[in-house]
Amino acid sequence: MSSHNESILREPLVTGRDITYAKVTADILVPVENKPNKAWWIGFIISVLGALLWVGSVSYTFWTGIGAWGLNKTVGWAWDITGFVWWVGIGHAGTLISAVLLLFRQNWRNSINRSAEAMTIFAVICAATYVISHMGRPWLAYWVFPLPNQFGSLWVNFNSPLVWDVFAISTYFSVSLIFWYTGLLPDIATIRDRATGLRRRIYSILSFGWNGSVKTWQRFEIVSLILAGVSTPLVLSVHTIVSMDFATSVIPGWHTTIFPPYFVAGAIFSGFAMVQTLLLVARKVLGFENYITMFHIESMNKIIIVTGSIVGVAYLTELFIAWYSGAEYEQYAFLNRVSGPYWWAYWSMMTCNVISPQLFWFKKIRTSIAASWILSIVVNIGMWFERFVIIVTSLHRDYIPSSWVMFYPSVVDVCVFIGSIGVFFTLFLLFLRVLPAIAMAEVKLLLKSSSDQAKQKLITEKAVDQTHAQFYIDSLEKYDSVAPQVAYAKGK
Amino acid sequence: MSNTKYILGHFEDPDDLMHGIEQLQANDISIYDVFTPMPIHGIEAKLGIKRSRLPIAAFCFGITGTITAFLMIFYMLVLDWPIDIGGKPAFAFPDFIPVMFELTVLFCSFGMVGTFFFANHLFPGRAPRVMDLSATDDRFIIAIDAKKNPHLDKIDHLLKTAGAVEVKYNERKYVSYE
Fold first, then answer.
1. Chain A within 8 Å of B121 (Cβ-Cβ)?
2. What are the chain A neighbours of B131 within 8 Å (beta carbons)?
3. How far is A209 from chain B (nearest CA, A)?
4. Rounded Cα–Cα distance for residues B122 and A358 (Å)
5. What predicted TM-score, i.e. pTM, was given to this entire model?
6. How many domains is chain A built from?
7. Could you tell me if A440 and A458 lie in one domain?
8. Rg over CA atoms, chain B
């Protein structure tokens, strides 16, 4: 039912007074229907410069070959694969929010799923660019697909996790894309019906003729639920397979069975951090404080503590098992990680990923926007170091000490990485301008049950237990978007 | 009012809309369709709309993907070009599973979404069959075919007592986007 009553004890998901369905539409479409502000232009220009840097450095790589990077004969895989795993991991939060939280009926996902899914798609695009550019001969990229032998190679080897990865990443990208786009149809129809002229024509094409009839909504809901059902194991399989790129090899430090769960937890960890990085800024700049509330921020921070702790336990387990295995090479690989020439990378990873998220146990920090934003960036720095540590420290000292080397990134390596961040933000900022960053139809669902307005009404009508009402009012204390109303409700 | 083709009852609240549907049904007035800006749970049962068979389609597409993947890998690795990897058997079934899973998901998702778009006539460039522009914004709209239900004032009265904020008499069925 659209108006089932939710317990008064639950914190509101939508705040603000006089929120109506029309106001939801109008608020969310502000950035889409108006000219962008200065903050957007500044962000966009910087991002586009980053994207141009990416175009330049990737073109240079294609022209000269991957000798343009800092790779050598011992470390044959470094920043490229680090960047790839980092971006794929970031993408995971979008699917987790849109699919897993849908299956668990977590209504707070409704206002963050759209932008998180967009983030997934853009992050996977960035990851895919690394896959293509690290191939060396990118014009033969189609060799990864199972094509008959006359196309140049044998059938691909389906015993190899790299081939599984091709299938996993391409399935993940395309399924995320249709999940996202199907969810967008009703909202694109809303823009269409408010627009005029050329904009109406464009959005009309994009809306696929959506009209919101009963049968459309019925099928839409089923499609969303089943897509969520298949995307949940999909997202787990993707990072599992990414981890198998390493785990099925025989390199000490890679050859561990803990990799799949450890990588998946790390992916969700970094993905939520990236969602925080983006949304904390977006909610302020676009004025979405009433829809992306302190409850959302706090919930995401809680997920960051949980997944950060799982990652921490995985690091310690890895160390313990390396010692307990009694295998000399395994033991050396880990000793070298912790105290070898890359100790600073290992301890940056430990500090950023394991220690810093524990600060979120303090409610003050967890509900502080500035602290959440800074820590979200710290987490992603840590997650980048995690991949770097796993990849480079396992490779740089192999079985023959005479070939032990250090890895130094070339300028091109650095430019490709910084450029990929530029590509990501360019796409994300364009998304904010042309499509609604919050799923309007889904937020409208929350209005009658989970909004502060509906709950305040129940309290005013004395329809709920007074002690419960007091509990609810106290829980509003942390909200930055309802502060003036707390006093008003307290009088009752 | 003789040219009226469709009567549209505009509601501002989904609960009033449900109430309106009950009122109309109690008076044997057939409802053409209902347009809403968000899904209304329980409305299908009230309007007697059958359960969707999309889950069955999704399952069939999914299983097609599983079988396709298995046959493809089996053909390539076992029948067409078996490779001797350390004397291990070419038919290494556990290694087939990841790709079989991925193609199951891929076929299921694309097949199901394709079926949904096909069944609802959704495709890029489709002329939207929208009866009122506010149905995608903040209005919950019941559409009644005026030719089949002649007592317009009675319908008007029923809709308004149920809580309709506006009743419109449309002379053309769909909004023109030209």
1. yes
2. 211
3. 4
4. 48
5. 0.91
6. 2
7. no
8. 26
